[in-house]
Amino acid sequence: NSNPDAGQGTGNGIVDAVATTSYVGVLGPYHAEVCIQDPADPDYRPNFESPRNRGIFGVNVAKSFAHVTDGLSNTIIVGETNEPLTGNNLLYGSVTNSGGADCTNAAQFQPGPFHHLRATKTKLNPPPGADKYWRAFGSMHSGGAHFLFGDGRVQFISETIDHTSSGWPANGNPTFVNMGIYQRLSVIDDGRPLDSF
């Protein structure tokens, strides 16, 4: 918010005005539970780094451009979303009253990580009510959405882009062979050539 007279935050986190955005970070191609904290869970990793988080962003995880071995021009890092997919929670992110990231509930309309992260498992611009539509990218534009690539360019991607909804393999060893181009654009290190789109 650029208005200096908009008011200050209060002790309970309520503010008179907040800056908003229609863009969120790219988590990767899966509907990963990004905050697995149980060491007994097979997907547990220290610092919340689930093996399913194959995009540039995660929760409390630092990745640099050096981690993007598929090339910055082949990797989406930020994508467009819209209010109907997120409700008002996009305004506030996933910060709890105590100030930290809330990883305890990744459900819709809860203060979890999917208010500032999205995955490409769900088709671009899904209709409300589609499976996990609130974890998807989308826009109010007809036919697609805008994405920022690692090389700095912004490109409109058509909602008809090749997409397969490939899920996490049962053996826990992703090969990315059956993934569509849309999902593979969100992976930073699949090592496979990318067809034109």
- Ranges where pLDDT stays below 50 over 5 or more residues in a row are 1-12, 85-91
Summarize the helix and strand pattern as letters: EEHEEEH
| CA radius of gyration | 17 Å
Q: Largest sheet, described in full?
A: 5 strands, mixed
Strands of the biggest beta sheet: in what spatial order? 3-1-2-4-5
Q: Could you give the distance between the termini? A: 36 Å
> Percentage of helical residues?
under 10%
Portion in beta strands: 5-15%
Mean pLDDT across residues: 75
Q: Which structural category fits the helices and strands?
A: mainly beta
Q: Based on CA inertia axes, which overall geometry fits?
A: globular
Count of individual beta strands: 5
Compute the number of helices: 2
Instruction: Characterize the quaternary organization of these chains.
Output: single chain
Kindly describe this structure.
The protein is mainly beta. Helix content is 5%, strand content 13%. It has two helices and five strands. It has a five-stranded mixed sheet. The N and C termini lie far apart (36 Å). The model is unreliable at 1-12 and 85-91 (pLDDT under 50).
